[in-house]
Amino acid sequence: xxxxxxRGSSATSRAFLFIVIMMALVVVGLYTDRLEPxxxxxxxxxxxxxxxxxxxxxxxxxxKDTFVSHADLKLENEALKTELLIHQRKLQQxxxxxxxNVRLRQLLNASQTLQDTVLIAELIGVSPNPLSHKVIxxxxxxxxxxxxxxxxxxxxxxxxxxxxxxxxxxxxxISDSTHAIPVQVNRNGVRxxxxxxxxxxxxxxxxxxANTDIRAGDLLVSSGMGARFxxxxxxxxxxxxxxxxxxxxxxxxxxxxxxxxRSRHLLLVFADRDQASVPGALGASRDTNTSSSSxxxxxxxx
Length: 302
Description:
Elements: H1 11-31, H2 36-66, H3 70-112, E1 117-126, E2 134-137, E3 150-152, E4 157-164, E5 169-173, E6 180-185, E7 191-196, E8 203-209, E9 219-222, E10 234-242, E11 249-256, E12 265-270, H4 283-295
């Protein structure tokens, strides 16, 4: 029998035979499982070689972790501190956004309970005069704002618009010492005038008769008298009622329901729904409402 690799066989024939065998093994390995046991045995044999070839990389990593200069550690520490500050700032922003989301939800719930059309506004400034309780909002003539327009937050009535610009307006808060608003006790309908005291957390009731049925805890709402503020808006809660036998009138102190020193998002109230439908269509009716509001200005301020 003639040997497979005889001396006279050419190198080309042997190379061709090896290529055929190799291709056959590749095809068998791809499309069958016959070579799986061989692969498992070969992997166990080859694994130590992979570990040996990975030794230089592991030695290099160990060297970097062990022999680190003081300057490198300082730079890394500063970088980590900077990254920590950045993440802390982001957390603060998330906390602020969460709080703002809560306030907007409260404002939305308040707007759903109203029968009038409302427009959301944002507080953009506060009067620097400590004797004047005024704030600036980002709504003006182009948004349909007008003088005498009621303003409230998610908890109660805050005040009224007294100056209107193109893009902003000035709001006089109910706590200002020059402001007064007709109110009534929600429990029994007793009417009174709530005046600002110059304290953001305090209102006083003017000329309340000594025999008036009013007590601490009563809710005061706008009565609608004077045609400035619509009826039924929460204004204040009675905190204290002082009866002095020597005086004809009671001393009544109430706390505003609105968060005058904290609310940032406010509501502008439109008694006529047609006014707030399309800001561009307010030109004709806005002048009318502004003039009518000006004639009734004495009912809202003293």
